[in-house]
Q: What sequence folds into this?
């Protein structure tokens, strides 16, 4: 009997040494150490042996079983380690490669795309693109643009004023520094630095105390200025018509309505013909056009001939009010983007909701 136990142990050790996977090793464990294994049957039948054989056979069987249990445990660790190394080698990740699948590169924000479209159109018309400071002086934001001291826009509830630290140079009184309410201050700054003729646009951020579906405390505006000899209101209309046809389509028309702005005289508001109802105010089946509210025109911005008083602040730079004329116009970039893309709420542009932004990819 002891000889058979030795044979079983020898066979088991040879089989374990050749096992190449955890599943194969488990099968061998069941075969040699399981409840139906021959070695287990021998241990169960010890009591049926002759008294003089029980000790030697029982001792040999127990030693064989313990030895095989230790062998299986050791071999199991070896196989697990080898399988782990193979798995790591096969599944190695090259961190220098892009993700799989690679994420989309992304795209420009619709506000930026609209701004660049307007810039491209105006550059094609001979204008240069300029930028100015967002933190501005009262002089450039109001005074030099012919805003009287009691103008409502100078009030704290309408404008973000910047508190200047003690000892700081504000260039004026306690309310001299503010976040610009429009990009128009660059009219004066550009004329101070450049003699006529001057044709430029100024896109950029502006700030006002407004916040609702169609107003934002921070918004983007484009200011346009054309100054030279013999410039008339007809030139303004032609420029706006050419620009808006490039933005909204070649069939668009514009109209001007009398208005008032402190830094232009005469002043107008300009509208573009509705591109949804073709200027009729109604859709198919006689439905009222919701985009233009049934009037056939969409308000876009303000414009006018530069007030001679504004030229008076830059007279020393060559802008003589008696011989120089010019026009200015301004409108919100968000409004153009809302109309072009059918966005009903201005705040959607700033929520950073990918469900909305990915529509413009």
A:
């Amino acid at each position: 009997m002891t000889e058979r136990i030795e044979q079983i142990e020898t066979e088991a050790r040879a089989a374990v040494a050749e096992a190449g996977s955890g599943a194969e090793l488990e099968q061998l464990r069941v075969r040699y150490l399981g409840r139906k294994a021959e070695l287990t049957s021998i241990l169960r039948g010890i009591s049926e042996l002759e008294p003089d054989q029980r000790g030697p056979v029982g001792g040999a069987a127990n030693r064989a079983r313990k030895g095989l249990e230790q062998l299986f445990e050791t071999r199991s660790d070896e196989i697990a380690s080898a399988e782990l190394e193979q798995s790591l080698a096969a599944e190695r990740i090259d961190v220098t490669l892009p993700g799989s699948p690679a994420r989309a590169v992304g795209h420009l924000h619709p506000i930026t795309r609209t701004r660049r479209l307007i810039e491209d159109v105006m550059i094609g018309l001979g204008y240069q693109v300029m930028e100015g400071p967002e933190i501005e002086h009262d002089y450039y934001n109001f005074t030099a643009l012919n805003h009287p001291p009691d103008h409502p826009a100078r009030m704290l509830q309408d404008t973000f004023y910047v508190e200047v630290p003690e000892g700081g140079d504000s260039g004026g009184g306690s309310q001299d520094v503010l976040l610009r309410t429009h990009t128009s201050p660059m009219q004066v700054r550009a004329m101070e630095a450049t003699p006529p003729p001057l044709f430029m646009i100024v896109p950029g951020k502006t700030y006002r105390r407004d916040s609702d579906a169609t107003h934002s405390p921070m918004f983007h505006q484009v200011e346009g200025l054309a100054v030279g000899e013999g410039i008339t209101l007809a030139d303004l209309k032609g420029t706006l018509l050419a620009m808006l046809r490039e933005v909204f389509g070649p069939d668009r028309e514009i109209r001007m309505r009398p208005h008032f702005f402190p830094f232009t005289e005469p002043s107008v508001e300009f509208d573009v013909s509705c591109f949804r109802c073709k200027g009729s105010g109604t859709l198919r089946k006689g439905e009222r056009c919701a985009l233009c509210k049934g009037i056939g025109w969409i308000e876009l911005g303000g414009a006018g001939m530069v007030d001679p008083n504004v030229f008076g602040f830059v007279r020393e730079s060559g802008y003589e009010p008696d011989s120089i004329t010019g026009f200015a116009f301004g409108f919100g970039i968000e409004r153009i983007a809302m109309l072009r893309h059918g966005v009903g709420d201005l705040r959607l542009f700033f929520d950073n909701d990918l469900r909305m932004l990915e529509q413009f990819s």
Q: What stands out?
A: Residues 51-90 form the longest helix (40 residues). DSSP finds eleven helices and nine strands in the chain. The chain has two domains: 2-90, 110-360. The mean pLDDT is 86.
